[in-house]
Amino acid sequence: MTTFGWPVAAIVLLGAVFLGAIWWLLFRWFAKVEQDGGFDSRVPQLSLPPFETLRWKKHGWWEGKAYSPAWAGFCSASGSYGGLLDTAPSDGSFIVCVTFREPRRDRTPSEAQKNAYQFQMDHGREVVSVILNALPKYYADLRQDWMLTADEMPDITDPEKFRSLIGLNSMTIHPFLKDGLAYVGLLFACEWDSEHKFGVMLHGSRIVGIGDHAAASEDQKPEEAQDA
Description:
By secondary structure, the chain is α+β, with helices and mostly antiparallel strands. It has helices at residues 6-35, 111-122, 124-146, and strands at residues 54-57, 61-67, 75-78, 84-89, 93-98, 166-178, 181-190, 198-203, 206-211. A seven-stranded mixed β-sheet has the order 1-2-5-6-7-8-9. It starts with 5 loop residues before the first helix and ends in a 17-residue tail after the last strand.
Protein backbone atom coordinates (compact mmCIF):
# COMPACT_ATOMS: atom_id res chain seq x y z
CA MET A 1 0.00 0.00 0.00
CA THR A 2 1.43 3.37 -1.05
CA THR A 3 1.09 6.37 1.23
CA PHE A 4 1.85 10.04 0.69
CA GLY A 5 4.92 11.36 2.44
CA TRP A 6 4.59 14.35 4.70
CA PRO A 7 5.94 16.86 2.08
CA VAL A 8 3.34 15.80 -0.50
CA ALA A 9 0.56 15.80 2.06
CA ALA A 10 1.57 19.27 3.19
CA ILE A 11 1.49 20.57 -0.39
CA VAL A 12 -1.96 19.07 -0.95
CA LEU A 13 -3.18 20.59 2.32
CA LEU A 14 -1.74 24.03 1.51
CA GLY A 15 -3.30 23.88 -1.97
CA ALA A 16 -6.68 23.07 -0.49
CA VAL A 17 -6.35 25.94 1.99
CA PHE A 18 -5.30 28.32 -0.81
CA LEU A 19 -8.25 27.36 -3.03
CA GLY A 20 -10.60 27.65 -0.08
CA ALA A 21 -9.29 31.15 0.67
CA ILE A 22 -9.76 32.22 -2.95
CA TRP A 23 -13.30 30.85 -2.96
CA TRP A 24 -14.10 32.69 0.28
CA LEU A 25 -12.70 36.00 -1.00
CA LEU A 26 -14.70 35.71 -4.23
CA PHE A 27 -17.82 34.86 -2.26
CA ARG A 28 -17.34 37.90 -0.02
CA TRP A 29 -16.68 40.15 -3.03
CA PHE A 30 -19.81 39.06 -4.89
CA ALA A 31 -21.84 39.33 -1.69
CA LYS A 32 -20.58 42.90 -1.15
CA VAL A 33 -21.39 43.91 -4.72
CA GLU A 34 -24.89 42.52 -4.30
CA GLN A 35 -25.28 44.16 -0.91
CA ASP A 36 -24.20 47.65 -2.00
CA GLY A 37 -26.29 47.46 -5.17
CA GLY A 38 -23.34 48.04 -7.46
CA PHE A 39 -22.61 51.53 -6.08
CA ASP A 40 -19.07 52.90 -5.97
CA SER A 41 -18.41 53.93 -2.36
CA ARG A 42 -15.29 55.86 -3.41
CA VAL A 43 -17.43 58.50 -5.15
CA PRO A 44 -19.16 60.96 -2.78
CA GLN A 45 -22.93 61.11 -2.94
CA LEU A 46 -24.39 63.94 -4.99
CA SER A 47 -27.00 66.31 -3.63
CA LEU A 48 -28.03 68.53 -6.51
CA PRO A 49 -31.56 69.96 -6.74
CA PRO A 50 -34.00 69.15 -8.18
CA PHE A 51 -32.71 65.58 -7.73
CA GLU A 52 -32.79 63.76 -4.43
CA THR A 53 -29.52 62.24 -3.21
CA LEU A 54 -27.76 60.36 -6.02
CA ARG A 55 -25.12 57.63 -5.73
CA TRP A 56 -22.59 56.70 -8.39
CA LYS A 57 -23.09 53.28 -9.98
CA LYS A 58 -19.97 51.30 -10.89
CA HIS A 59 -21.35 50.99 -14.41
CA GLY A 60 -21.09 54.76 -14.93
CA TRP A 61 -24.20 56.72 -13.96
CA TRP A 62 -25.91 58.42 -11.03
CA GLU A 63 -28.83 56.62 -9.47
CA GLY A 64 -31.31 57.46 -6.75
CA LYS A 65 -34.90 57.25 -5.65
CA ALA A 66 -37.70 59.51 -6.80
CA TYR A 67 -41.40 59.96 -6.12
CA SER A 68 -44.25 61.43 -8.11
CA PRO A 69 -47.91 61.26 -7.03
CA ALA A 70 -48.85 61.04 -10.71
CA TRP A 71 -47.52 57.45 -10.81
CA ALA A 72 -49.17 56.34 -7.58
CA GLY A 73 -51.92 53.75 -8.03
CA PHE A 74 -50.30 52.00 -10.97
CA CYS A 75 -48.80 48.57 -10.34
CA SER A 76 -45.54 48.30 -8.42
CA ALA A 77 -42.35 47.32 -10.25
CA SER A 78 -39.56 46.01 -8.05
CA GLY A 79 -35.98 45.12 -9.01
CA SER A 80 -33.67 46.34 -11.75
CA TYR A 81 -33.82 46.31 -15.57
CA GLY A 82 -37.52 47.01 -15.71
CA GLY A 83 -38.40 45.14 -12.57
CA LEU A 84 -41.05 42.56 -11.83
CA LEU A 85 -44.69 43.55 -11.97
CA ASP A 86 -46.55 43.45 -8.68
CA THR A 87 -50.30 43.98 -8.63
CA ALA A 88 -49.95 45.84 -5.34
CA PRO A 89 -50.55 49.56 -5.97
CA SER A 90 -47.44 51.71 -6.31
CA ASP A 91 -46.92 54.60 -3.93
CA GLY A 92 -45.43 56.59 -6.80
CA SER A 93 -41.80 55.67 -6.10
CA PHE A 94 -39.35 54.72 -8.84
CA ILE A 95 -35.63 54.71 -9.67
CA VAL A 96 -34.08 57.74 -11.34
CA CYS A 97 -30.85 57.43 -13.37
CA VAL A 98 -28.74 60.22 -14.84
CA THR A 99 -26.46 59.07 -17.65
CA PHE A 100 -23.54 60.69 -19.49
CA ARG A 101 -21.74 60.43 -22.80
CA GLU A 102 -18.32 60.70 -21.16
CA PRO A 103 -18.63 59.91 -17.44
CA ARG A 104 -14.85 59.92 -16.98
CA ARG A 105 -14.70 63.56 -18.12
CA ASP A 106 -17.70 65.07 -16.37
CA ARG A 107 -20.21 63.57 -13.94
CA THR A 108 -22.22 66.71 -13.26
CA PRO A 109 -25.83 66.61 -14.49
CA SER A 110 -26.35 69.31 -17.11
CA GLU A 111 -28.89 72.12 -16.92
CA ALA A 112 -30.86 70.33 -19.65
CA GLN A 113 -30.98 67.18 -17.51
CA LYS A 114 -32.07 69.10 -14.44
CA ASN A 115 -34.74 70.85 -16.51
CA ALA A 116 -35.98 67.54 -17.90
CA TYR A 117 -36.29 65.97 -14.46
CA GLN A 118 -38.05 69.04 -13.08
CA PHE A 119 -40.46 68.94 -16.02
CA GLN A 120 -41.37 65.34 -15.20
CA MET A 121 -42.00 66.27 -11.58
CA ASP A 122 -44.09 69.32 -12.48
CA HIS A 123 -46.05 67.76 -15.37
CA GLY A 124 -46.43 64.18 -14.14
CA ARG A 125 -50.18 63.97 -14.65
CA GLU A 126 -49.88 65.35 -18.17
CA VAL A 127 -47.20 62.75 -18.97
CA VAL A 128 -49.35 59.97 -17.51
CA SER A 129 -52.30 61.05 -19.65
CA VAL A 130 -50.20 61.13 -22.82
CA ILE A 131 -48.79 57.65 -22.21
CA LEU A 132 -52.14 56.11 -21.26
CA ASN A 133 -53.76 57.53 -24.39
CA ALA A 134 -50.96 56.13 -26.57
CA LEU A 135 -51.17 52.64 -25.07
CA PRO A 136 -54.36 51.29 -26.73
CA LYS A 137 -52.93 51.63 -30.26
CA TYR A 138 -49.50 50.31 -29.26
CA TYR A 139 -51.11 47.37 -27.46
CA ALA A 140 -53.45 46.61 -30.38
CA ASP A 141 -50.51 46.68 -32.82
CA LEU A 142 -48.68 44.17 -30.61
CA ARG A 143 -51.67 41.84 -30.57
CA GLN A 144 -51.79 42.00 -34.37
CA ASP A 145 -48.02 41.50 -34.78
CA TRP A 146 -48.02 38.56 -32.38
CA MET A 147 -51.23 37.18 -33.94
CA LEU A 148 -52.78 36.50 -30.56
CA THR A 149 -56.43 35.91 -29.79
CA ALA A 150 -58.43 37.75 -27.14
CA ASP A 151 -58.05 34.72 -24.87
CA GLU A 152 -54.26 34.94 -25.14
CA MET A 153 -54.04 38.74 -24.96
CA PRO A 154 -57.24 40.54 -23.94
CA ASP A 155 -58.50 43.32 -26.18
CA ILE A 156 -58.14 46.54 -24.18
CA THR A 157 -59.26 49.87 -25.59
CA ASP A 158 -59.85 51.91 -22.42
CA PRO A 159 -56.64 53.82 -21.59
CA GLU A 160 -57.43 53.86 -17.86
CA LYS A 161 -57.38 50.06 -17.68
CA PHE A 162 -53.65 50.09 -18.35
CA ARG A 163 -53.08 51.47 -14.86
CA SER A 164 -53.44 47.90 -13.60
CA LEU A 165 -51.16 46.47 -16.32
CA ILE A 166 -48.01 48.58 -16.03
CA GLY A 167 -45.70 49.82 -13.29
CA LEU A 168 -43.00 52.49 -13.62
CA ASN A 169 -39.63 51.03 -12.64
CA SER A 170 -37.16 53.70 -13.70
CA MET A 171 -36.73 57.12 -15.25
CA THR A 172 -33.47 57.72 -17.13
CA ILE A 173 -32.39 61.28 -17.84
CA HIS A 174 -30.31 61.01 -21.00
CA PRO A 175 -27.40 63.28 -21.99
CA PHE A 176 -28.82 64.20 -25.40
CA LEU A 177 -31.19 67.14 -25.61
CA LYS A 178 -33.22 69.56 -27.70
CA ASP A 179 -34.09 73.19 -26.96
CA GLY A 180 -32.49 73.04 -23.53
CA LEU A 181 -34.43 69.96 -22.42
CA ALA A 182 -32.90 66.48 -22.14
CA TYR A 183 -34.73 63.38 -23.32
CA VAL A 184 -36.17 61.03 -20.73
CA GLY A 185 -36.62 57.27 -20.96
CA LEU A 186 -39.35 55.63 -18.88
CA LEU A 187 -39.08 51.89 -18.32
CA PHE A 188 -42.10 49.90 -17.11
CA ALA A 189 -42.78 46.36 -16.02
CA CYS A 190 -45.89 45.26 -17.87
CA GLU A 191 -48.42 42.45 -17.90
CA TRP A 192 -48.03 41.50 -21.58
CA ASP A 193 -44.22 41.14 -21.78
CA SER A 194 -42.39 40.31 -18.57
CA GLU A 195 -39.08 39.82 -20.40
CA HIS A 196 -38.79 42.81 -22.72
CA LYS A 197 -40.88 45.27 -20.67
CA PHE A 198 -42.48 48.47 -21.98
CA GLY A 199 -40.49 51.62 -22.72
CA VAL A 200 -41.17 55.21 -23.75
CA MET A 201 -38.81 57.98 -24.85
CA LEU A 202 -40.04 61.47 -24.01
CA HIS A 203 -39.11 65.04 -24.78
CA GLY A 204 -41.12 66.92 -22.20
CA SER A 205 -44.54 65.30 -22.46
CA ARG A 206 -44.13 64.42 -26.14
CA ILE A 207 -43.59 60.76 -27.00
CA VAL A 208 -40.75 60.34 -29.51
CA GLY A 209 -40.40 56.57 -29.13
CA ILE A 210 -42.55 53.74 -27.79
CA GLY A 211 -41.89 50.01 -27.65
CA ASP A 212 -40.12 47.54 -25.39
CA HIS A 213 -37.24 48.33 -23.02
CA ALA A 214 -35.02 49.43 -25.94
CA ALA A 215 -37.29 52.39 -26.72
CA ALA A 216 -36.27 54.03 -23.45
CA SER A 217 -32.54 53.36 -23.79
CA GLU A 218 -29.70 55.64 -24.85
CA ASP A 219 -29.24 53.53 -27.98
CA GLN A 220 -32.47 55.03 -29.32
CA LYS A 221 -31.26 58.62 -29.47
CA PRO A 222 -33.78 60.52 -31.64
CA GLU A 223 -32.47 61.99 -34.90
CA GLU A 224 -33.78 65.38 -33.83
CA ALA A 225 -31.67 65.37 -30.65
CA GLN A 226 -28.40 67.13 -29.97
CA ASP A 227 -25.49 65.96 -27.82
CA ALA A 228 -25.06 67.50 -24.39
